[in-house]
Amino acid sequence: MSIEERSHSSRGFGRRRFRKLAWRHNPILLCAGLAALLMVPGASTLLWVLLGYIRKAVWHPGWVLFGAIHLLVGSQVLTLAALSLLTKRAERRVLQEIRTHTLT
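^ that's the sequence the OP posted. Answer follows.
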């Protein structure tokens, strides 16, 4: 085994393999999880505007709209990811129930 092969095998699971498996088994969860990251800039923008309003009494309505939209879309997509997980789990339970009843 060469040094390159050892370094690749010692990395563990790997990001590329994780993305491939996530895309194959539950693509909605993967896309929704990534899109839920919109909440981070939305919340930080709203916090920045709030601190500016408290410190200097300066209000930025455009930035508030930007932050609120990102926070709203991110929370909706996070809800979609949670529903995707629940649906996948229910699907597995139904399939397991079907298999147990067809075998007996």
